[in-house]
Automatic annotation (TrEMBL):
The lineage of its organism: Eukaryota, Metazoa, Spiralia, Lophotrochozoa, Mollusca. The chain crosses the membrane at residues 31-51, 72-102, 114-131, 143-166, 186-205, 217-242, 262-287, 308-333, 339-361. GO terms for cellular component: membrane. One of its GO terms (molecular function) is L-amino acid transmembrane transporter activity. It comes from Pomacea canaliculata (Golden apple snail). Keywords: Membrane, Transmembrane, Transmembrane helix. This is Amino acid permease/ SLC12A domain-containing protein. It is a multi-pass membrane protein.
Length: 386
């Protein structure tokens, strides 16, 4: 079993008489689409920028682990990612989308759980159809969702700035007063928020589809990290400006409660923007996850039929359907919190293993060409925490 060696070209399916040819995905991702993919999921890709310049292959962590540690760790990662991590992330986004969207249709008493799940399944099926249609449809959807997501965050940021200028700073002045000092609770807090910052490596899963990867991969990573970090920090400051900590802790939808206070009757626009945001996150997970499965099928690590492409638009239809169906299965038991708790342990373990590859390659492949190499000790520390 060789590592996932995906050609850099994009010439489409091989000729029928060339048995040694490999299917390649079409190159149609420039700077804008690539950056949208990063921002749509989020943060920390400098480690992967260096790794991908050393191992210039699609398949992301699978390719890195295979090249560094061999077959078994890479194989275990691939099946864990394909059957647990990616479908779980899509299911979480689908359930969140359903919760926010159904808020527009208030009912007497608790919202029926079955309706929420059916709405989530409908969203996942819609994404499957869009992604199967072609990259020319899926990629613009991701860009549009990202733009709307950023606009919603900007409204929150500037709304918070205006409130701070009006003197709404009581919660901010309290700082960390009355916060827990127990190490277990602090660790759990970091563990929980990791999901919000997951996806920072997504652009590297579509290596062979990116135009001019040496330039665009680094640019997408840098811009995505900067934009997301600033927006997330400022948005949370805005939440603390408008809402009390108790209100935030007891709220089922902090952004909606924020919008009710700041925007009043116009809060419905924030609700729709958040729904679109979760739709975009699911779209990003399905898009990138199906590419990993496609590469694995082509490398015979997973069934070969998962590497089949649509004859006209070159979309990895079997891989998309496989990922989407697993996501629907994860929706059935429901419970966003339960799925996150189930998801984060394997995800953090695999991210940690990927980061260790960085240091191994710096010792074993010191002269390999790199898009970026962090020599400063501070960056080495940041690599560990990434």
């Amino acid at each position: 079993m060789d590592s996932l060696d995906l050609p850099k070209g994009g010439q489409g399916p091989p000729a029928p008489d060339n048995k040694d040819s490999k299917l390649t995905l079409k190159q149609n991702f420039g700077f804008i689409r690539g950056t949208s993919l990063v921002i749509g999921s989020v943060i920390g890709a400098l480690t992967y920028a260096e790794l991908n310049s050393v191992v210039s292959k699609s398949g992301l962590t699978y390719a890195y682990l295979h090249d560094c540690y061999g077959r078994l760790p890479a194989f275990l990662f691939l099946w864990t990612s394909a059957t647990v991590i990616v479908p779980s992330m899509i299911a979480i986004s689908g359930l969140a989308f359903a919760d926010y969207l159904l808020t527009l249709a208030p009912v007497c008493g608790p919202r029926p759980e079955l309706i929420v799940k059916l709405c989530a399944v409908a969203m996942i099926v819609t994404l499957m159809v869009i992604n199967c249609k072609s990259n020319d449809v899926a990629a613009p959807v991701q860009v549009i969702c990202t733009i709307l997501k950023i606009l919603a965050l900007l409204v929150i940021v500037f709304g918070g700035i205006i409130r701070m200028a009006q003197g709404w700073t009581a919660e901010l002045r309290q700082g960390f007063d009355n916060s827990t000092k127990e190490s277990v609770n602090i660790a759990l807090a970091f563990y929980s928020i990791n999901y919000s910052y997951a996806g920072w490596s997504n652009v590297f899963t579509i290596f062979e589809e990116v135009k001019n990867p040496k330039r665009n991969l680094l640019a997408c990573s840098g811009v995505g990290i900067l934009v997301v970090t600033v927006l997330y920090i400022m948005a949370n400051i805005s939440f603390l400006t408008v809402l009390s900590r108790k209100e935030m802790m007891t709220s089922s939808a902090v952004a909606v409660d924020w919008a009710d206070v700041v925007l009043g009757s116009a809060s419905i626009t924030m609700l729709l923007a958040i729904a679109v945001s979760t739709f975009g996150a699911a779209a990003s997970s399905l898009f990138t996850g199906s590419r990993i499965i496609f590469a694995a099928g082509r490398d015979n690590v997973m069934p070969e039929w998962l590497s089949f492409l649509h004859v006209n638009n070159l979309s990895p239809v079997p891989a998309i359907l496989f990922t989407g169906i697993l996501a629907i299965i994860f929706v059935i038991p429901g419970g966003i919190g339960n799925i996150i708790n189930f998801l984060m342990f394997p995800m953090n373990i695999l991210d940690f293993l990927s980061t260790t590859v960085l240091f191994v390659f710096r010792k074993t492949k010191p002269n390999a060409p790199r898009i970026i190499k962090n020599e400063d000790d501070a960056f080495k520390i940041s690599d560990i925490f990434a």
